[in-house]
Design goal:
It is built from 25 helices and 14 strands. By secondary structure, the protein is an alpha+beta fold. Belongs to the protein-tyrosine phosphatase family. Non-receptor class myotubularin subfamily.
């Protein structure tokens, strides 16, 4: 049943004005309906997917300037997606310029990817929700991947309009139970399919051995230990079954407050310092319990802070950093800049682009996240201090900051396998609430916040500034962000490992019930063919030299970058009383007391940070060493590929990062062919001719929209002239004077 709600569209008996111009005349639609159905594209259903409702004679609108064009087809809604099935002859088939997803088609929208639904009534756009009394003549769907779809329903039968509109609203906006997600229908239908080994693509960190190996890789096994005290989730349901804690910590201490208030290891630096995280203790009003908590924290803190041998700095992310509300509000404003309905709207907002961008604060939030990571790196690298991140549940900003620190400090995390393992360790096993933060169940908007997308945007800034340091490309990050909304992968559809194991049948006592096996998002062959997967790997990646083990002498390994840095002098021995002050500071944070200052004065921190930051950037980068971002104003840019890929007006003809990379690949392939020709001098002439017959690739039709959209023609001047624009003339004239205008792709 459809839930009751507010009427989405206004009433009135006024006949709608015809505003749609189609290549198909209305009288032809009904007379040729039988013939058209024979041409329809077949609806491909995944295992367990069911058709819910459909409508024929729907026109998918392609809006450009003041004209409107449409493609005739059928609009369907299943329990997995909304799909438009048009004439397949209209779809271009160019292997070079297509990046096809095998799960989601070009005209498919997963139900979880729907952001907002609008209806057009008498040329007025209104939000649709609940049960409608009047149905729109046009349906507009805004997607979370920033696509915008327009469907004209004027020529569709009234009964079908009611069914498809009501069905789409209900199945995308009504609150759901976890077990009602398509995830489980798919897993049940594919239960008997042979399962693939997820460990081929990433370390899953679901066994004790995985943590042992990670400790050994980072040389943290001397001070930290992997524990199984939470096996079966008997201590805490928010923690994974296995994790790492300081070696002196007793197992009974872990269970004392159900896993809260415990320093949990994230990563170890080459100098022996470590990055840790800790959740806050429960808030108590009783004085006796408060004293117990204070004594507990005092004892626990000594496991990571033992001056003069080992010191720790606490970083309270709940009080002195971003809030989830700030992140959500900024992104809500930011995404509106890219949900463009037509060319007129694009050019109308383009003249105030920078002011709108600045008012969203999204780029400023990215800058603050990167700066916070660099500050923590300065403590680890230059001051030789442990860093303890504090947060209420240690599952949002802790995941974000700790992951950024590792991407910048650990070259392993900049490989595809290492990055996927990092996400598994810090986000999946770290208990990030993907189900709530992505609002997959549509139960509450209050918990929604794009924290993981913010992390990917921060990583993109690093990839954009230091491309040779990363094995993966920006296209990899873009398709990873899209995968947040594809519910055949279990990776991003649970709040904790416990919730996943409980719902997938792994804790079931029934020996006859076989646990459900879901796909991992890291198996990219599920979504892309091998040729398309090549766009996920960076051909210019500077790999780690094989003979880099030569400098392993002395107590601590020092990479060349560190040896050349003008580092801040490490503090020798803390003053008497420092330990007590730092412990009190930690207790206040864990007991929920908001404080205004860190232990280190802000001036001292700023001076050390600036010296460290400037010192690193004064020297050429080492792509297999420490990597720091540029934080200055213009250096933090818009992730153009993700946010602008569906807007034809924003494309760079023959340009953009991927098109440039394609040209470089052509040159590399040509060099390889020449080398093969030289090697083939001693072989037959036929072999030489065969090599010469291989035609070079061409990127002549590529644009900055590639690989997500084909080269599209668009007007070179705004539809609505404004006082701030000059007459631009034709495209050739625009190209000659391109430096006079701002290019959105370089923002």
């Amino acid at each position: 049943m459809l839930g009751k709600g507010v009427v989405g569209g206004g009433g009135g008996t006024k006949a709608p004005k015809p505003s749609f111009v189609s290549y198909v005349r209305p009288e032809e639609i009904h007379t040729n309906e039988k013939e058209a159905t024979e041409k329809e594209v077949t609806l491909h259903l995944l295992p367990g997917e069911q058709l819910l409702c459909e409508a024929n004679t729907v026109l998918k609108c392609v809006q450009e300037d003041s004209c409107q064009r449409g493609i005739y087809g059928r609009l369907v809604c299943t329990d997995f997606k909304i799909a438009f099935l048009g004439d397949d002859e209209s779809a271009p088939d160019n292997d070079e310029t297509q990046f096809k997803n095998k799960v989601i088609g070009e005209n498919d929208i997963t139900l979880h990817c729907v952001d907002q639904i609008y209806g057009v009534f008498d040329e007025k756009k209104k939000t649709l929700f609940g049960q409608l009394k009047k149905y729109p003549e046009k349906l507009v769907i805004h997607c979370k991947d920033l696509r915008v779809f327009h469907f004209c329903l004027r020529y569709t039968k009234e009964e079908e309009v009611k069914r498809i509109v009501s069905g789409i609203i209900h199945h995308t906006q009504a609150p759901k139970l976890l077990k009602r997600l398509f995830l489980f229908s798919y897993a049940t239908a594919a239960r008997n399919n042979p399962a693939t080994d997820p460990k081929k693509h990433a370390i899953m960190f679901d066994t004790l051995q995985d943590w042992f190996r990670e400790l050994e890789r980072t040389k943290g096994n001397m001070k930290y230990k992997a524990v199984s005290v939470n096996e079966g989730y008997k201590v805490c349901e928010r923690l994974p079954a296995y994790f790492v804690v300081p070696a002196p910590l007793l197992e009974e201490d872990i269970a004392f407050f159900q896993g809260r208030g415990i320093p949990i290891w994230c990563w170890s630096c080459h100098n022996g310092c470590a990055l840790l995280k800790m959740s806050a203790l429960p808030k108590e009003q009783d004085d006796g319990m408060l004293q117990i908590q204070k004594n507990f924290v005092d004892r626990i803190y000594k496991t990571v802070h033992r001056p003069p041998y080992e010191t720790a700095k606490t970083e309270d992310l709940s009080s002195n950093f971003l809030s989830l509300q700030e992140i959500q509000m900024a992104y809500s404003k930011f995404k509106q800049l890219f949900l463009i309905d037509n060319s007129t709207e694009f050019w109308d907002t383009d003249i105030k682009w920078f002011s709108l961008l600045e008012s969203s604060s999204w780029l400023d939030i990215i800058r603050r996240c990167l700066k916070k990571a660099v500050e923590i790196i300065e403590c680890l690298e230059a001051q030789n201090m442990n860093v303890l991140l504090l947060e209420d549940h240690a599952s949002d900003l802790c995941c974000l900051v700790s992951s950024l620190v590792q991407v910048m400090m650990d070259p392993h995390c900049r490989t595809i396998f290492g990055f996927q393992s990092l996400v598994q360790k810090e986000w999946i096993m770290g208990g990030h609430c993907f189900l709530d933060r992505c609002n997959h169940l549509r139960q509450s908007d209050k918990e929604e916040a794009p924290v993981f997308l913010l992390f990917l945007d921060c990583v993109w800034q690093l990839v954009h500034q230091h491309p040779p340091a990363f094995e993966f490309t920006e296209t990899y990050l873009t398709v990873l962000s899209d995968s947040l909304y594809i519910p055949i992968f279990s990776t991003f559809f649970f709040n904790s490992p416990h919730q996943k194991d409980m719902n997938m049948g792994r804790e079931s006592q029934d020996s006859q019930s076989k646990p459900l096996n879901l796909l991992t998002v890291w198996d990219w062959s599920v979504q892309f063919e091998p040729k398309a997967q090549t766009l996920l790997t960076n051909p210019l990646y500077v790999e780690k030299p094989k003979l880099e083990k030569a400098q392993r002498k002395g107590t601590h390994f020092k990479h060349q970058r560190q040896l050349s840095l003008p580092l801040t002098q490490s503090k020798s021995s803390p003053k008497r009383g420092f330990f007590r002050e730092e412990t009190d500071h930690l207790i206040k944070n864990l007991l929920g007391k908001r404080i205004s200052k860190l232990i280190n004065s802000s001036e001292e921190l700023q001076d050390g940070f600036r010296e460290f930051y400037d010192g690193w950037h004064s020297r050429p980068p080492s792509y297999q060493g420490l990597l720091l971002p540029h934080l200055e104003g213009p250096e933090i840019k818009v992730w153009a590929q993700r946010y602008l890929r569906w807007i034809p007006e924003a494309q760079i003809l023959g340009g953009g990062g991927v098109a440039t990379m394609s040209k470089l690949l052509e040159m590399m392939e040509e060099v390889q062919r020449l080398q093969e020709k030289i090697e083939a001098r001693h072989h037959s002439q036929e072999a030489l001719q065969a090599e010469a017959a291989s035609p070079p690739r061409t990127s002549g039709r590529l644009s900055s929209l590639f690989p997500f959209a084909l080269l599209q023609r668009h007007p070179s001047k705004p539809v609505l002239p404004t006082s701030g624009w000059k007459a631009l003339g034709d495209e050739d004239d625009l190209a000659k004077r391109e430096d006079e205008f701002v290019d959105l792709g370089d923002v």
